[in-house]
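Lecture 7 notes: from sequence to structure.

We start with a single chain of 413 residues. Read the sequence below before looking at the structure.
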Amino acid sequence: MAKKEQIVVGLDIGTTKICVIVAAVGTDQGVNIIGFGSSPSRGLRKGVVVNIESTVESIKTAVETAEMMSGVAINSVYIGIAGGHISSETAKGVVALKREEVSRSDVQRAIETARSAAVLSSDRQVLHVLPREFIVDDQEGIREPVGISGSRLEVDVHIVTGAVTSARNLVKCVNRAGLDVVDIVLQPLASSEAVLTEEERELGIAMVDLGGGTSDLAIFSEGTISHSAVLPIGGQHVTTDLQIGLRTPLADAEDIKVHHGVAIARMVDDVETVAVPSVGGRPARPVSKREIAEIIEPRVEEIFDLVLREIRRSGYEGKLAAGVVITGGTSILKGMPDVAEVILDLPGRRGVLPANVGGLRDMVNSPMYSTVVGLILHAHRGQEFESVGGGRKSGNGFGSVLGRMKNWVVNFF
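Now the structure, written as tokens:
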């Protein structure tokens, strides 16, 4: 008998905006978006909650809009996490096989052994344990070891950790908004689900999610994740530079960035001007678009310089044959792929949604929504769904979320 269609919800709690997507997921390969809600984010800084009440109200506003559009009462969500507190490392685990071939329990034991090898302080928590490669006896490069004969199983994993307090505050905000948290997903992992192809993952690729408060990096090689990092710089820094450089209110600086911003000054004609609002009741004044671009360009170059430094630190410089994909709201700026190509010395493109996203696709067909769409695709590909309709909104606590996450292995192969 075919499985009944499920409803899943992704919630992206970002530094500048909070987005909710409601999707209907059937037994086919696609997802249909049936609801969408967005609201300004007023309680986060660099991906970390700094004002719980403001964050809760922003979540409620976005959720209510999505509920009205979809006609579904939202009870549980998949949420993304980012911020400067996120870090990653690699580890290995080895176990002796109980039988002559690898079983699912052997895989779990090997992964748990690798996870236990991570030395964590009391204020940090493992968020993801992502297998990169399995080795059975001397046979390397195995992606699915179950059923392979041998006497020894080894696994190489990518471990993502985060600050306990930051994750707890994120879950607390969602709970106070009346929602259960199904699982927490690292934002660059979610975004990669929405914008990368399997061929790119195989060849080797860097994905850079340029958000408001942070820029997230995920490196894939041979079909699996190899490195991840969260850089504490993003589009808000560009806005602040414009605010100071143009001596204009922050909201107007953001509007100028979105509607007139260009990442490369030489791409702009010197003649074109923009009316820039002043402060203190002074009249607006004309400023050339070239001058605006000259303020933006150094900050954009700084962002990609930090990305390049992280790629070099990871050891994958020169190994990313598929180049770089940029996504996130800041990637919309004209000229951003060009800056990425020059500084990283890689072919670049903006991320686009995959073909299997249907329904209200046009409403979220923008790089700024790649994380929230990726949360839906991630749930569709690797998770057991929890229904979001019906029942009361109870709010699962942080402990129960981490309990599920400890036993959760994401298969990115």
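Residues 383-395, 404-413 have pLDDT under 50 and may be disordered. Keep this in mind for problem set 3.
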